[in-house]
Amino acid sequence: MDLESFRAYCLSKKGVTEELPFGPDALVFKVMGKMFALTPLDTIDMRVSLKNTPEKNLELRGDHPGIQGAFHMNKKHWSMFMMNEGVPSKVLIECTDNSYDLVVAGLTKKVKAELEGL
Length: 118
Hints:
Pfam families: YjbR (PF04237). By secondary structure, the chain is of the alpha+beta class.
């Protein structure tokens, strides 16, 4: 999967916006203002950091050498997917969905209601 395809997939999800809060080299995807995905724009090879449960992160890192703890993030909850190291696009999509769902689950009732209304 390339960056444009990943970007389009993220933006197709309800309530998602993209921002550059950490400078021009880090594209962040947020649902209702909460980050669920980050990808650096200053690397040749596509990398994506996603949130997941600690157990799922350990499982993914054990199964795929191209998945490791995300730089500058809580490695217990965030993993980096290095697409040039053989991470299947299917795994990236599934984990993007999981990250989005985890963040949505943590939203307040009021914000969840706003999201449902979009």
